[in-house]
Amino acid sequence: MTTLAPSALRRPDGQALRLLVVDDEQMLTDLLSMALRMEGWEVKTASSGFEALQAVRDFRPDAMVLDIMMPDLDGMSVLQRLRASGDDVPVLFLTAKDAVSDRVAGLTAGGDDYVTKPFSLEEVVARLRGLMRRAGTAQTAEAEPILRVGDLTLNEDSHEVQRAGVEIELTATEFELLRFLMRNQRRVVSKAQILDRVWNYDFGGRSSVVELYISYLRKKIDQGREPLIHTVRGVGYMIKASQ
């Protein structure tokens, strides 16, 4: 069983977490909103800096996904105004900029984390979970964010993966794919769902890339052991341990 289901991360009072997504790209806010609602979280969106400031006052989010480049008031200015008013809501910056100087500027301004476009939806969700746990705005039933399927364990914070106590080295993409499968264990996920959640939100690839990475995972996770990753022909993939 998984020791940390998505629905287990909630406010200390048991209520659903509130997330504010701020970006002027409608397609992006729609995708992020869908991914965050799948976690059982309440989501509100804003398409401009001034709209974001109003939404923070009205919605009181537990965390924000904040784009830096916006037409009216940029993300840096939004964050500066929030911090100046004493609001310490955790902020995950989202931007097309990937220079080290931009990353440093965002964190120096009071941002808590930084993701560059293009990105995987699963990574954004994982980063937000980590932000809210560290900030104390969310709690889980378990002290450690560990997923388990049979003798396979995955630590979402340290990115350590072990099977039967033996450490397994994974690339970043392999880790995100395995995490997605484990968080949906005993549930069939389609190639399209995997592409949406694991690869870049604007990734124009084909389902063959999913097949390739599933084969990579099988070599590292299942080779010489009882298989955990299963193919459901014509539907997708599922991870489960034998009864």
Explain this structure to me?
The longest helix is centred in the middle third of the chain and has 15 residues, at 121-135. The chain has eight helices and eleven strands. The chain has helices spanning 26-37, 49-59, 75-84, 100-108, 121-135, 172-182, 191-198, 208-221, and strands spanning 18-22, 42-46, 63-67, 91-95, 113-116, 146-149, 152-155, 161-163, 166-168, 229-232, 236-239. The radius of gyration is 19 Å and the shape is elongated. Helix 1 crosses helix 5, helix 2 packs parallel to helix 3 and helix 6 packs across helix 8 (208-221). Strands 2-1-3-4-5 form a five-stranded parallel β-sheet, with helices on both faces. It has a four-stranded antiparallel β-sheet with strand order 6-7-8-9, covered by helices on one side.
Short descriptors:
37% helix; 243 residues; four-stranded antiparallel sheet; alpha/beta; disordered N terminus
Question: How is the topology of this model organized?
Answer:
Elements: E1 18-22, H1 26-37, E2 42-46, H2 49-59, E3 63-67, H3 75-84, E4 91-95, H4 100-108, E5 113-116, H5 121-135, E6 146-149, E7 152-155, E8 161-163, E9 166-168, H6 172-182, H7 191-198, H8 208-221, E10 229-232, E11 236-239
Parallel strand pairs: 1-2, 1-3, 3-4, 4-5
Antiparallel strand pairs: 6-7, 7-8, 8-9, 10-11
Characterize this entry briefly.
The chain is of the alpha/beta class and 243 residues long. The chain has helices at residues 26-37, 49-59, 75-84, 100-108, 121-135, 172-182, 191-198, 208-221, and strands at 18-22, 42-46, 63-67, 91-95, 113-116, 146-149, 152-155, 161-163, 166-168, 229-232, 236-239. It contains 8 helices and 11 strands.
